[in-house]
UniProtKB/TrEMBL annotation, chains A, B:
Domain HTH arsR-type stretches: 1-92
Single GO MF descriptor: DNA binding
Protein's name according to its UniProt entry: ArsR family transcriptional regulator
SMART domains, sorted: HTH_ARSR (SM00418)
Gene3D superfamilies referenced in this protein's UniProt entry, alphabetically: Winged helix-like DNA-binding domain superfamily/Winged helix DNA-binding domain
Keywords for this protein: DNA-binding, Transcription, Transcription regulation
Keyword Transcription: yes
Organism: Bhargavaea ginsengi
Length: 110, 110
DNA sequence: ATATCATATAAGCATTGACTTATGCATCTG
DNA sequence: CAGATGCATAAGTCAATGCTTATATGATAT
């Protein structure tokens, strides 16, 4: 692995909002509209973060109907390390699962 | 470990010049004047990178005479992970050891 | 077909970041 | 002591980043 590749990975992961997104993705695929309330940003902001993560090869997006479901890309050479790092951080206040448990149905109804 | 702490770590490590510095530090303490030719920047630039790394708790500097010797801080909670990441990257073209082997004595004469 | 919904992209703006040169401050050396 | 050396800090510049609002695209629903 080249130094610039490691740099790209670290730069992409080194952002609070993106870390929140990645943390949520460790629980499985999520669509943008479910991530938006989680990170407290507008939808375009979340999409841009996802693009950054995608360009770094950390996540992949699968279009299904109207929605794009984002997941951690398990093929990334540092995937396991990323998951390991995220596991050290306490779960966020409100995960997508929490929102659903509270009756606040996710936008994509999954 | 809090999310912001992880973010600080990733931001500090997510820079090519700083990665080169960290890579060199895995071989032991080095002074600024030896790092400067290695990263190809001016001395103030290197000092500023070191400050950034120090503020993140990744490195420590020990003043000895005229020189400051910088090392990886083994007390950092992510020290081992950092070393693991750096080990994935091929060694730079010219390490401090190489410079010395070529007869180019380090500035601090160590 | 028309409207709606989920998402992506574009443009603009404020902030941060990474450098440079210039300078200050210790510490050694002659 | 005077000068040189190693390093840190200050100030200024330019590019990159993270947001916003506005808009385009494409799929679904009516």
């Amino acid at each position: 692995m080249e130094l610039t590749e490691l740099e790209t990975f670290l730069k992409a992961a080194g952002d609070g909002s993106r870390l929140k997104i990645l943390q949520q993705l460790t629980s499985g695929p999520v669509c943008v509209c479910d991530l938006t309330p989680l990170v407290g940003l507008t939808q375009p902001a979340v999409s841009q973060h996802l693009k950054r993560l995608k360009d770094a090869g950390i996540v992949t997006g699968e279009k299904r109907g109207r929605w794009t479901f984002w997941s951690l890309d398990q093929l990334h050479p540092l995937h396991d390390i990323m998951v390991g790092l995220l596991s050290r951080v306490p779960a966020p206040g409100r995960t997508v699962a929490d929102l659903e448990a509270a009756g606040e149905k996710g936008c994509c109804g999954v």
